[in-house]
Amino acid sequence: VMDQPSVIDEQYDEVGNNQLTFQEIFDIDGIYPVWPYDFAVYPRDTVTFKGSTVNPFADFATYRFEVDTTDLFNSPAHRYSTQFSAGGVVEVEYNEWINVNSGMQNELILEDSMVYFWRVAVEDTGSYYWIESSFQHINNKVGWGQDHFFQFKNNDFLFLNYERPARQRTFGPAFRTIDCDVYGNATSFLETAFTLYHIDGEIEEYNFCSINPQLLVSVIDPVTLEPWGTYYDDGATIHNPNNDFGNSNHDGGCRPRVEYHFAYQQNNATQMDAFDNLIQNEVPDGHYILIYTARYADFINWDADNFNTFASLGCDSIHPGQTENKPFIVFTKKGNSGGSGITVLNGGTHEVFGDTIESDISMLDTLWGFDFYGAESGPLIGPSLNWETAYWRLDSLESPTDDSTRIQIWGYTHSGAATILIDTLTQAFDSIPNLGSIIDASTYPYIQLHAQQWDKTGFTPSQIDGWHVLYDDVPEAALSTANTSLYWVPGDTLYEGQDLAIAFDIDNISDLPMDSLLVKYWIEDAQHAITPIPYARQDSLRVTGTIRDTLEVDTKDFDGLNSLWVEVNPYVSNGEKDQLEKHHFNNLGQKPFFVSGDNQNPILDVTFNGYHILNGDIVDPYAEVVISLKDDNPYLIMDTEADTANFGLYLTHPDGFQQRLNFRNSLGEPLLEWVPANASNRKFKIIMQSNFEQDGEYRLLVQGVDKSDNLSGDFEYDIEFEVDHNSSITNLMNYPNPFTTSTRFVFTLTGAEVPDEFTIQIMNVTGTVVREITRDELGDIQIGRNITDFEWDGTDEFGDKLARGVYLYRVIVKMNGEEIEHRESEADKYFKKSFGKMYLL
């Protein structure tokens, strides 16, 4: 999201067109050290170092590991090892190290209480992107610790300087800048968002709820220089439980989160009384107070106590009798004796007023802390199954000393909500032996150590020589193809419907077993839509064990560039994984593949009694109608009853009633027969044994799609045909006519049966029969339009060639000994008294 909150004037939309959401995969050939994990307390004197590649399916590469007792990696103990491996888990055994200085093999036996620094990178022509980790070996102990001074270098320091050359901490400069902006009479999103304040350039809070003019109050701790937050219950943790000051944005009243100002509606007398109480009674002397208006000061709704509250802060620009509504900013330190208009740095109260209600105003000042205070926070510790013991060692830089140290232990839920669970003033050497009785690991699987330091005499903080937390560790699983290459068949490009098969390893790289393993698969398609792939829970993952996981994926409907994703031990709710585990980045794998979509139309074919008919043809009332759909895609064969849903069959009867032809009736009984396609013919057939009871014109509409929803062409099959139960025959036409070598006979039959007697007599002009063609010679005859298979070649009964000239012919057709009716047709004009004329050239 760009320009959020909006502080740049824009001509058009301030929100919708300032944001872009997209998903992108970055192929990074990096590797992280994962075992022993960072700051681990490791119990045995030999260890197998393990790194996990960012991409578990990465190609083969050479990885360089280094280990030493200093993070400078320059001591006589400096060792290295190179491993050529595919992606996933890359390992170095304790006896695979080479001493950098001697070039000789140098196995690593860990010394008790020694801290070791190690790093790993992809080897690339001598240039390395190192990822560093450290751990401490303590015999038979498991947990977390920072013991070497160099292990503290990336901690969070507040008003403390981490001075590496001297290997000590000193108090640093304790000041920060604070600035505030108010948009006068703000109403739009742009204007309300512009009402905000920063500390050291970082937005602490912005915007406000409700269009009613309000007073926004920020209270800033003079020691930590951090603003107070509002009370908020997120359902798992109550944040700032003591900060209920009658403000309108209490407990998510404005936004569902902790806010870093307290809002008071100026037209609400109860809230304005609560405002007075906050300033007069709740905020201790010495705390910084920033008060600024949301829109403007609505003085008409103030009472005398409200004005007195500002007077107590040293304000002289705000006094009874004011009626002109203007925005303002007031910044002060409670208990200051200086005058108004003076910067807080000089002990005064800083006031900024707008000239009109529409004025935009700003204020800049400085927050000063103390040169005898500082704080330090370590990284997150865990996750843990059970917390056991916490202990620490502190050293003073002078003796005697007035150093004071408070140790806080913060607990973190799975969702990341933090709560202070232990806050104690500590001695130089101290411990909490029964940590599990105070902190429930099932609620707080992570903790964090904080130290607050004071020294008002020597102005030097206590030095943390080391702090440790022992606990019951959790296992660690990782995707890998290092020991067995990725099985990926048939490749990165497939035809739609072709199955994709993948196999890889899931390794347990820890010293603890995992329960039955949940693995989550999904496909992200070319449009970034997510399709989950159901997958059964796997076997348990034992110590040093491996599960070879395999999956087959149907690529139907995944046209284009896709990604197959796998997540081992996935998150199941609100930041909580299915099983507790140390890392998660090495549980996630992504493999792109391209599917060439099926966009070829299938071929639809319809026959009546095995013949293709023309529009308007006559058909057998009991014809067998066969509908077939042929798809050339060999991977999407239509071979189940479910594929009948790909057809739409509609029959319109002579009376105009349109009927959808179903495959089963309401009782589930079959009405239409279907024949599945197979790999050789790829043709799905529907067989309809018809019974067209009415005489007249019918219409058959057939629609068909293949499994990729490709239509069977630009137009559906739509044909009209006629049914006539009465037996009749049209006059026969010979074709071609005239002819030289052969001619066939064309006619149309109606009725339900083919005549049992069918004779064609050919005569010369004198009336002598020169050739008689029988039913058996004519071949197949059907109800409807016929063109005989038989071809008369112009020969007589004996096979002799007849002379060129004109010949007459007629047909004799009988059913059960009786002649059938003549059916009128366009051919009648070429016949005289049922005789036709042909020309032999």
Written account of the structure:
- Helices cover about 5% and strands about 40% of the residues.
- The chain contains 5 helices and 62 strands.
- The strands form 15 sheets. The chain has a 10-stranded mixed β-sheet. A 5-stranded antiparallel β-sheet has the order 11-25-30-27-28, with no helix packed on it. A 5-stranded antiparallel β-sheet has the order 20-17-21-22-23, with helices on one face.
Task: Record keyword descriptors for this entry.
841 residues; disordered N terminus
Write the layout of secondary structure elements.
Blueprint: E1 31-35, E2 40-42, E3 49-53, E4 61-68, E5 79-85, E6 89-92, E7 98-99, E8 115-122, E9 131-137, E10 143-146, E11 156-158, E12 160-163, E13 168-171, E14 175-183, H1 189-194, E15 196-199, E16 202-206, E17 214-220, E18 232-233, E19 238-239, E20 262-265, H2 269-282, E21 288-294, H3 304-312, E22 328-333, E23 350-353, E24 360-368, E25 373-377, E26 386-395, E27 404-412, E28 418-425, E29 429-432, H4 435-438, E30 446-454, E31 463-472, E32 477-480, E33 487-489, E34 493-495, E35 499-508, E36 514-516, E37 519-524, E38 530-533, E39 540-541, E40 546-554, E41 560-568, E42 571-573, E43 576-577, E44 588-596, E45 603-608, E46 624-630, E47 647-652, E48 658-660, E49 673-675, E50 683-689, E51 696-704, E52 717-723, E53 728-729, E54 733-735, E55 744-750, E56 757-763, E57 769-773, H5 775-778, E58 784-787, E59 805-815, E60 818-819, E61 821-822, E62 836-840
Parallel strand pairs: 2-9, 34-44, 53-61
Antiparallel strand pairs: 1-3, 2-10, 3-6, 4-5, 4-8, 5-7, 8-9, 10-31, 11-25, 12-13, 14-15, 14-24, 15-16, 17-20, 17-21, 18-19, 21-22, 22-23, 25-30, 26-29, 26-31, 27-28, 27-30, 32-35, 33-35, 35-40, 36-39, 37-38, 37-41, 41-44, 42-43, 45-46, 46-50, 47-48, 47-51, 49-50, 51-52, 53-55, 54-55, 55-58, ...
Helix pairs in contact: 2-3
